[in-house]
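@channel sequence for tomorrow's demo:
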Amino acid sequence: MNYSGVRTVEVAVIGAGQAGLAAAFHLRRVGYEPDRDFVVFDHSPRPGGAWQFRWPTLTYDKVHGMHALPGMELTGADPRRPSSEVIGAYFGSYERTFGLRVHRPVSVPAVRAGGDGRLLVETSEGGYAARAVINATGTWDRPFWPRFPGQEVFGGRQLHSAQYEGPEGFRGARVVVVGGGTSAVQQLLEIAPVAASTVWVTRRPPVFREGSFGEAEGRAAVALVERRVQEGLPPRSVVSVTGLRMTEAVRRGRESGVLERLPLFERVTPTGVVWPDGRTAEADVILYATGFRAALDHLAPLKLREPGGGIRMAGTRALRDPRVHLVGYGPSASTIGANRAGRAAVREIQRLLASEALAATG
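structure tokens (generated this afternoon):
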């Protein structure tokens, strides 16, 4: 194929959050050079992955489960500083320390088959032909908005947790928070002291996890998520199977009634929400803390999805195309899982490229 005007690399890494940086680190560690053998694209304006967009009142001491990137610990962070600043600075320092030369802001609208064994990665700075792709695009760009009858007539404000900027915007308001994940709980606990009233609704009763969460429990949780991926179903978050961590703030929220959960309402009205039994709640704001979906639309030309809607995986490798590896997806969508997935993807790609080189010389 004619690659006139298209740069060639061995590996393209799409996304520079935890998973993408871990993969880039391991590529460099095994001898691949940035901008010669591999390239890292990130559409965000600065280092930090999705963390750079977190609300300013989410300070570093409220973050749980942040695992260090390979080869460099995060030390000496001020626990009262916004997590977006702490982790953004850490990621930026990491990129500089290891010379990863992340290209940003660069968007990747599509990845296509090149017809000669390479993948064509279309980017806002031009085309790249890669022998393998490590996709680390996460979920931040695809907030999930549930649909309820009547949403279009609601007279108040509706927003997703991705748009949350802190509790001040809810002062004096009657607020309905939808969602049973960590963000829902954290944001509800911040809003409740300044709001006129709050109502918490979830699809399923929340499960609060007491006590420690060790390696065995972690493996069991990841296995549940991995099973769906192996079956070609869309992954659920690891948090959905681990439950909500019982912190002192959560305990106080339960005791005060702030975290008293109601089932999902049936419909939205101009002034609030209505349940199937006729109960109502007046609302000025509905906050949908309903999670995110994997941002994978740019891979659609490769036809990787199964009938069930997900991408069937073997480890990090897409079964429909062994040149494509997904890190930070499904079972590796945690900070420690992303690190391990980055290393595993690089090992598999090394084997793939070595076998192709051997076949070419044979």
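heads up for whoever presents: The chain has seven helices and 18 strands.
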